[in-house]
């Protein structure tokens, strides 16, 4: 099969990407419902959004209806009430201002709780049919995590999974613990959260590339994990690394994991990915109308 890669190089309104994702998800669901002969290609969208706090299904507010841009009218979960003053409803036509300390709030259908996305972070959404790739829901999560760990290894960073969601790296020491040893609290470098409907996946990962997201993370208890810190590739000594560079590496590692773990070898049930092609937003959206 072929895998489409849409990379949006500029800071992009989160709602714009959410709309693209919904379009692609609907195409895959329509194919499954009507059994059309040629399934749409799976797609990975990579981007950095304007500052935005999102909630998953475990942390939705009493009502997720946003009436206008006034922060006092936003229906927020308890996790975001302390920072109501810096939140606004979606602003799809507002240009990104790096000096602003205002973020949008978006409730989503992904799993998990509250997290932050924004400039300096690679967000990668995978829109694909798990069954076509031979993936169970649990394998899908592991695929995302292991793909990130493979990327981190390219930069000399050892990523790991713990009992908590996401990808972690060794952080500060406590009580005299040695580097990477007992007493050290891991720091989170990547959030993982997905949504599944009829085995069609959406959402994905948020990997911190620069230190830009750190101020925003300090305003919340990310993913409900009290006392746990976040970090970035830059914070771990990686200088001059760009989101676009990391995006390309993530897609490459994702394909390698799919082909190596699920599409080849004894007992493999998934299709292999034979080609990755870059696609523009215009061409991607046009495909569904031709």
From TrEMBL:
Extract the ranges annotated as region (Disordered).
57-77
Q: Which InterPro entries match?
A: aa-tRNA-synth_II/BPL/LPL (IPR045864), BPL_LPL_catalytic (IPR004143), Octanoyltransferase (IPR000544), Octanoyltransferase_CS (IPR020605)
Q: Which SUPFAM superfamilies match?
A: Class II aaRS and biotin synthetases
BPL/LPL catalytic domain: residues covered? 38-262
Q: What keywords are assigned to this protein? A: Acyltransferase, Transferase
Origin, by domain of life? Eukaryota
| MF terms in GO | lipoyl(octanoyl) transferase activity
Q: What reaction(s) does this enzyme catalyze? A: octanoyl-[ACP] + L-lysyl-[protein] = N(6)-octanoyl-L-lysyl-[protein] + holo-[ACP] + H(+)
Which Gene Ontology terms describe the biological processes this protein takes part in? protein lipoylation
* Residues the record marks as active site: 223
Residues reported in the UniProt entry to bind substrate? 110-117, 191-193, 204-206
Q: In which pathway does it act?
A: Protein modification; protein lipoylation via endogenous pathway; protein N(6)-(lipoyl)lysine from octanoyl-[acyl-carrier-protein]: step 1/2
Q: Where is this site: Lowers pKa of active site Cys?
A: 188
Q: Briefly, what is this protein's role?
A: Catalyzes the transfer of endogenously produced octanoic acid from octanoyl-acyl-carrier-protein onto the lipoyl domains of lipoate-dependent enzymes. Lipoyl-ACP can also act as a substrate although octanoyl-ACP is likely to be the physiological substrate.
Give the family from UniProt: Belongs to the LipB family.
User: What is the designated name of this protein?
Assistant: Octanoyltransferase
Source organism:
Aspergillus neoniger (strain CBS 115656)
Q: What is the lineage of its organism?
A: Eukaryota, Fungi, Dikarya, Ascomycota, Pezizomycotina
């Amino acid at each position: 099969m072929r895998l489409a890669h849409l990379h949006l190089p500029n800071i992009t309104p989160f709602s714009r990407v959410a709309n693209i994702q919904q379009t692609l998800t609907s195409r895959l669901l329509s194919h499954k419902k009507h059994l059309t002969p040629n399934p749409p290609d799976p797609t990975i969208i990579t981007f950095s959004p304007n500052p935005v706090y999102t909630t998953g299904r475990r942390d939705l507010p009493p009502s997720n209806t946003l009436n206008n841009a006034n922060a006092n009218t936003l229906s927020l979960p308890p996790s975001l009430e302390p920072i109501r003053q810096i939140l606004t409803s979606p602003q799809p036509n507002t240009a990104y201002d790096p000096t602003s300390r205002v973020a949008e709030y978006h409730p989503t259908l992904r799993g998990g709780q509250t997290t932050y996305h924004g400039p300096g972070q690679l967000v990668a959404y995978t829109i694909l049919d798990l069954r076509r790739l031979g993936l169970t829901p649990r394998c899908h999560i592991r695929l995302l995590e292991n793909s990130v760990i493979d990327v981190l290894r390219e930069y000399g960073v050892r990523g790991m999974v713990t009992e908590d969601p996401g990808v972690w790296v060794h952080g500060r020491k406590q009580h005299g613990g040695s580097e990477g040893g007992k007493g050290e609290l891991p720091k989170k470098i990547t959030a993982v959260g997905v949504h599944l409907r009829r085995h069609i996946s959406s959402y994905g990962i948020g990997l911190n590339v620069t230190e830009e997201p750190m101020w925003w993370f300090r305003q919340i208890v990310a993913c409900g994990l009290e006392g746990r810190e976040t970090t970035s590739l830059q914070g771990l000594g990686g200088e001059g690394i760009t989101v676009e560079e990391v995006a390309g590496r993530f897609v490459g590692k994702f394909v390698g994991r799919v082909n190596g773990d699920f599409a080849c070898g004894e007992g493999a049930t998934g299709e292999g990915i034979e080609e990755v092609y870059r696609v523009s937003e215009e061409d991607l959206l046009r495909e569904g109308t031709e």
